[in-house]
Design a protein that fits this description.
- By secondary structure, the protein is of the alpha+beta class.
- It has one domain: outer membrane lipoprotein receptor (LolB), chain A, CATH 2.50.20.20.
- An eleven-stranded antiparallel sheet has the order 6-5-4-3-2-1-11-10-9-8-7.
- α2 runs antiparallel to α5.
- The chain is globular, with a radius of gyration of 22 Å.
- The N and C termini lie far apart (about 75 Å).
């Protein structure tokens, strides 16, 4: 083989190796997509949760909107009730059944449902944050069809079962056992468009034991075109 041809072959092989080496891993791809979403000016999403038909509580959809460095608005449907919530940093406000707004700080001093709402809302994360946390909690994320899928670590499953942020599923909160879960992410042109996670296990809260079997799907939409209108009464509670 002539030296010039040999050199060309070597260079081509080296370039191919460099391209392969530069390809992101599945976890890097999903993490980057979540970060990219979080850097957008705004976006909306819809969360739907499916539980067994025999479950006592059947959750409705959650409609969410968020602005970068701004507010996050949630419209939470449960049974025949709709609750609105607005969050900004550590502060937040939520409506009661009559539609009046209370701050999370006010609710934390109450007994019963008010304290529950405050704890749950403080533990909620926007899709960009939640997707990144779940990617970090995967055991072996791989490309599967049009998405990336993996089982979750036990701690990752516990976090999702308890409605708490990653790293906050220990200590205060329900006792959880036999936790397991899985997650799948869908990307389009390097952007996160949808993810779905399933969790199963047992939870003990307030002396009551219950089985958990939940599938949650989050669909992201209106990236860059979402607009949020915060009621004046809610805005006052954020100051």
């Amino acid at each position: 083989m002539k030296p010039s041809i040999l050199i060309g072959v070597v260079l081509a092989f080296s370039a191919a190796v460099a391209v392969r080496a530069a390809d992101p891993t599945p976890k890097e791809a999903v993490t980057a997509a979540a970060k990219k979403l979080g850097e957008k000016a705004n976006y909306s999403w819809k969360t739907t949760t499916v539980v067994p038909e025999t479950a006592r509580w059947q959750p409705g959809p959650v409609e969410g909107k968020t602005e970068k460095d701004g507010v996050t608005h949630l419209r939470i449907s449960f049974m025949d009730n709709v609750t609105q919530a607005v969050m900004k940093g550590e502060k937040g406000a939520v409506t009661n059944p009559e539609g009046a707004w209370s701050s999370l700080a006010e609710l934390e001093n109450e007994e019963g449902p008010g304290r529950f709402w405050a704890g749950m809302l403080r533990g909620m994360a926007t899709p960009a944050v939640q997707a990144a946390e779940m990617a970090a909690d995967t055991t072996d994320l791989k490309k599967e069809g049009e998405g990336y899928a993996s089982a979750l670590t036990e701690q990752g499953a516990k976090t999702l079962m308890s409605f708490r942020r990653r790293g906050a599923a220990t200590g205060e909160g329900p006792a959880i056992s036999d936790a397991k879960g899985s997650v799948r992410f869908w990307l389009k042109d390097g952007e996160l468009v949808k993810y779905e996670f399933k969790v199963q296990g047992k939870m003990s809260f307030g002396g009551n034991d219950m089985d958990v079997d939940r599938t949650t799907t989050v669909e992201i939409k209106d990236v860059g075109t979402t607009k949020i209108e915060v009621p004046e009464e809610a805005r006052k509670k954020l100051t």
